[in-house]
Design brief:
Largest sheet of chain B: 2 strands, antiparallel
Largest interface: A-B, 32 and 31 residues
Shape of chain B: globular
Order of helices and strands of chain A: HHEEHHHHHHHHHHHHHHHHHH
Number of strands of chain B: 2
Number of helices of chain B: 20
Strand content of chain B: under 5%
Oligomer: heterodimer
Strand order of the largest sheet of chain B: 1-2
Largest sheet of chain A: 2 strands, antiparallel
Order of helices and strands of chain B: HHHEEHHHHHHHHHHHHHHHHH
Helix content of chain B: over 70%
Number of domains of chain A: 2
Helix content of chain A: over 70%
Radius of gyration of chain B: 22 Å
Chain lengths: 492, 499
């Protein structure tokens, strides 16, 4: 064993390490910096897969940093769901990075590339940490790291819109972390612990003794994670931030960063909070209705957008609603759907942002109405866009259908068909704003009106991988579904 | 031949056209002729392979085979019984004729490199619908066919076509989502969506009603049922004529087929009748029949009139499904056959006229029968069959449906059938009669102008004539395979659809 025992910590160490090394490498051995980042993401991914295999064999296990057990030391915990999150984060970020190599040359000044790698690695490291940590204070620290580096990968483009958007993001996100810290403080006040399991152990008593305290704490948690994950109506920062950022950052932010906070909320609700608290306050009800509104309004706002990336960003608000819906429905089947959607949406939204990135890279246009006839000049890109959109709508054969299937089944299971109607209505809305783009792209008679550069192969290969992944998830969904179902059993 | 052979043939029939699609695409880069021949061959081979399944069906075999589970209890499977065979054979036959017709029709049109692959791909997915072994597989192929046939609808790429296509697309997606909802509820209530278990939902509840309504929306939308027919009169006329013939002749039937499966496999006749859902269907069917025929009267564009006529005719199919006794089911099933022959023939003939003369307005068609006697002859035969003149097949289907209605003591339905026949006569005869008897440009002294006989090309005529012959021989002739199949189907379904 030896080294393999330390994999949970090593994943974080490698990612943090490369983030410090990147600027140095970039300065001295410029050629090596990007491969080094890719390599470390890849190593981390391999380790994460190893952890997944290990946890399927031995069940849930913990890793104590420096050998100190809680409540003193930092505890990292690995179970199926966490390993799943870890793999999603690492695999998708590796995939986005492959694409980013070419795209960033175009979007950023060359000198800041090294810094971009640093920030990118930091975002990934903090997300991986959030998936692994078993300690509220750690979670807070990682949230801060993630928020600040996420802001920085938006503003690194240094144009006016980016700065404005990242400032807005920074403020709202600071508000979110502030709320979180207050919530943690309240929990700490009544339980005296930060470790998830210990908090969970002491909370049932604390809830009885200090109910108001815990009400406030749960409200603060919802606001905190809601702001970070763009849960309606706390989504206001998202469209600007995701639309103006460089395309790989948009893919990263929309695909992964908002999801990890949804995961955070899941952990707080189902690992930290005792069942009695969830039953006594209708927390899930709040999540359900907010997410439903997010699903509807996100799509409705997306319909009126003229900028392609902004449309995709609004669409993310709707889609993150599905994940929250899965959490709020409080049923294994629905939650399986929510977590499956987390993966599917990470891939499809990243791919759509990549498509938008390719379009911007090759033609420089961003407006939806300028895209008429683009299917003839960028066929592969637009086919990828079509498959991504089909998955958004939930056309059979794509991953989007499977997650909707499970969410809807879960909603029926607990006897609330109204949420099925919401899911279906939003699918229809998705169709209404994605379809015209595709139709215009392929069916327009007149020639495409703008000059087109050749698409670099490094950008096309990730798109092709994405297409395959989406179709694969739509057809061979079983292994992942089984994994999620087994993983979620721990929480019920 | 054993079951394994049949499974292989079924798989071949579904996937051969789908596999040929990319080959056609690459062939069209080399030579148009090669592509056309390949397309024709594909549809011909598919048709012949479908026919080889006939012995299995006549023996009364049912083939239900699961390939793999996509999710627990949710599988990809195929099924062959007499119902699916009937529709498969019908679809591949009409497809083959339309492919022949397309050779000349599309020769002067643009975008053949897109048309043929899509035509063949829709064939595969359409057969997939009929041969699916559970609702989920059916849904997958249904969506595939609906979405891909969008390309056929907007083929002309005119403003009008794009607009109609958009309407089609939105309605298709609404229908697809409704189906999805229905299938999910079925799954939730019954724990499976397989067609091989007989009845999935055994009793009517609120949720079951919701499922039924969702299925009705999903499949009814495709079948052009009132009030979801609005896309149909726009979408069918704008497509190229062979595609219109397929859309009206075959693809509408996928909706009817879906309703068959819903009524007999998801629910059962008892559930339908005890919960009074047959009345919902009956009322909608009557409105569909009358509305379709009445609006067809007001249309001046020949293809639009045909499209509205399709709405009315699909109403017959729904009517038979709501009566649910042996004669009615036989009649419905036979009407699916008859309508496919008649309406494809009509659309192909109308297409030939438009192709040759460019005239679409019915008021301009006076005297066309003298210029294009064969085309108009086929058109007339099919139109007379529509009206229900014996001995054509339209008569037989109406007769059987009428018998079914009388068996169920629903005299009102017979009345509806008669009124609709009258309406059919009112809107078809004004096309046929002037076409032959109005002499355009005649001076008052009776000196008729010379007519050049310029009929459609032999290939186009061939498919029309074959269809016209079908409407005649499948009327009252003693050997009537479609009618036998319809009777077998009705017998099979009323015995529970299991054995």
């Amino acid at each position: 064993m030896g080294l393999t025992n330390h994999f949970p910590a090593l994943i974080l160490a490698i990612l943090l390490g490369i983030s410090f090394l990147s600027p140095i490498l970039f300065r001295w051995v410029r050629k090596a910096s990007a491969p080094a980042l890719l390599l470390s993401l890849f190593l981390a991914l391999v380790m994460a897969v190893y952890l997944l295999i290990q946890t399927t064999q031995v069940g849930e296990f913990s890793y104590y940093m420096g050998g100190w057990p809680p409540p003193w030391g930092i505890e990292l915990k690995i179970n199926l769901i966490r390993a799943y999150m870890l793999i999603v984060v690492l695999a998708v970020s590796l995939w986005i990075m492959v694409y980013a190599l070419k795209d960033l040359e175009h979007e950023l000044k060359t000198d800041v590339l090294g810094w971009y790698y640093t920030l990118y690695a930091l975002v990934v490291a903090s997300m991986a940490g959030m998936a692994l940590t078993n300690d509220l204070f750690n979670l807070f620290v990682l949230m801060e790291i993630c928020a600040i580096s996420a802001c920085a990968i938006i503003s690194i483009k240094e144009d006016r819109a980016c700065l404005e958007a990242s400032f807005k993001y920074l403020i709202l996100s600071a508000m979110g972390t502030g709320c979180f810290l207050l919530g943690v403080a309240m929990v700490y006040m009544v339980t005296g612990h930060m470790n998830y399991d210990l908090v969970n152990e002491y909370l049932p008593v604390a809830v009885e003794q200090y109910p108001n305290n815990m009400f406030a704490a749960s409200a603060l948690f919802i606001v905190a994670f809601g702001t970070k994950a763009a849960l309606f109506p706390l989504h206001v920062w998202l469209p600007d931030a995701h639309a103006s950022a460089p395309s790989p950052s948009s893919a990263m932010l929309s695909g992964l960063v908002i999801k990890i906070y949804a995961f955070g909320l899941f952990i707080v609700f189902y690992q930290i909070f005792p069942r009695s608290l969830l039953d006594s306050i209708p927390l899930n009800e709040i999540i359900l209705w907010l997410s439903s509104m997010g699903i509807m309004f996100g799509s409705i706002f997306a319909m009126v957008q003229v900028d392609l990336k902004k449309m995709l960003a609004y669409s993310s608000i709707g889609q993150i609603g599905y994940v929250f819906l899965g959490i709020g429905l409080d049923d294994t089947i629905a939650m399986t759907g929510g977590f499956y959607h987390l993966l599917v949406h990470a891939i499809m939204k990243s791919m759509l942002f990549m498509c938008a990135g390719v379009i911007i890279y090759t033609t420089g246009i961003r407006q939806i109405k300028q895209l008429g006839g683009i299917g003839q000049v960028l066929p592969i890109t637009m086919i990828a866009f079509t498959i991504g959109s089909a998955s958004m709508i939930g056309i059979p054969g794509t991953g989007g259908l499977i997650s909707k299937w499970y969410l809807a089944l879960g909603a029926l299971e607990i006897g609330r068909p109204i949420f099925v109607v919401i899911i279906l209505a939003s699918s229809l809305l998705n169709a209404i704003y994605y379809m015209p783009i595709i139709v215009n792209a392929f069916m327009q008679q007149e020639e495409f009106a703008y000059e087109v550069k050749a698409v670099p192969r490094q950008m096309l290969i990730p798109l092709i991988i994405g297409m395959i992944a989406i179709v694969f998830l739509g057809v061979f969904s079983r292994p992942v579904i089984v994994l999620l179902e087994n993983g979620l059993q721990l929480f019920f | 031949m054993g079951e394994a052979t049949a499974i292989t043939i079924i798989l071949f029939v579904i996937f051969f056209p789908i596999v040929m699609t990319p080959i056609l695409m690459s062939a069209s880069g080399r030579s148009e002729k090669l592509r056309n021949i390949l397309a024709l061959l594909t549809s011909a081979i598919t048709f012949i392979m479908v026919l080889t399944l006939y012995p299995f069906v006549v023996r009364g075999d049912i083939i239900q085979h699961t390939f793999f589970e996509i999710l627990p209890n949710l599988e990809i499977s195929i099924r062959l019984d007499v119902l699916s065979f009937s529709l498969t054979a019908l679809a591949s036959f009409i497809w083959f004729l339309c492919a022949i017709y397309s050779l000349d029709y599309m020769a002067e049109e643009h975008g053949g490199s897109r048309y043929y692959p899509v035509l063949i791909f829709t064939l595969g997915s359409c057969l997939g619908i009929f041969l699916a072994g559970d609702f989920f597989t059916l849904f997958v192929f249904f969506e595939l066919m609906s979405l891909i046939s969008y390309i056929l609808v907007v083929h002309e790429e005119t403003e009008e076509a794009l607009k109609a296509g958009y309407k089609y697309l939105v309605m298709t997606i609404i229908g697809g989502l409704a189906l999805f909802f229905g299938i999910i509820i079925t799954f939730e209530l019954g724990g499976t969506v397989s067609l091989g278990v007989g009845t999935i939902i055994n009793e009517g509840s609120l949720l079951a009603l919701l499922a039924f309504i969702c299925f009705l929306i999903g499949f009814g939308m495709k079948a052009g049922m009132f009030p979801l027919h609005v896309w149909l009169p726009d979408a069918h006329p704008v497509a190229p004529s062979p595609a219109s013939a397929l859309l009206s002749g075959v693809m509408l039937k996928t909706g009817a087929y879906g309703l068959f499966r819903v009524i007999f496999n998801a629910f059962s006749i008892e559930v339908m009748q005890t919960s009074n859902w047959d009345i919902i269907l009956g009322v909608l069917a009557v409105i569909t029949i009358l509305l379709g025929s009445a609006v067809a009267l007001t249309q001046n564009d020949i293809k639009r009139r045909l499209a509205y006529s399709s709405v009315g005719q699909m109403g017959y199919v729904l009517l038979g499904l709501s009566i649910l006794n042996e004669n009615a089911i036989t009649g419905t099933m036979f009407h699916i056959f008859s309508h496919a022959f008649m309406k494809s023939c009509l659309f192909l003939a109308a297409g030939a006229i438009i192709w040759k003369t460019g005239k679409r307005a019915i008021s301009d068609l006076g005297g066309i029968g003298r210029e294009m006697p064969f085309t108009m002859g086929c058109f007339s035969i099919a139109a007379l069959a529509m009206i229900g003149i014996p001995p054509l097949n339209g008569f037989l289907s109406k007769w059987t449906l009428g018998l079914g209605a009388l068996d169920a003591n629903a005299t009102i339905y017979v009345l509806v059938l008669l009124i609709s026949s009258l309406l059919n006569a009112l809107y078809y005869l004004p096309i046929i009669v002037p076409a032959f008897f109005e002499i355009v440009g005649e001076d008052h002294h009776g000196h008729a102008l010379q007519f050049d006989v310029q009929d459609a090309t032999p290939k186009m005529l061939a498919s029309m004539v074959i269809l016209a012959i079908c409407t005649i021989i499948f009327g009252l002739s003693p050997i009537n395979i479609p009618f036998d199949l319809s009777q077998m189907t009705s017998d099979f379904l009323l015995r529970g659809g299991l054995f």
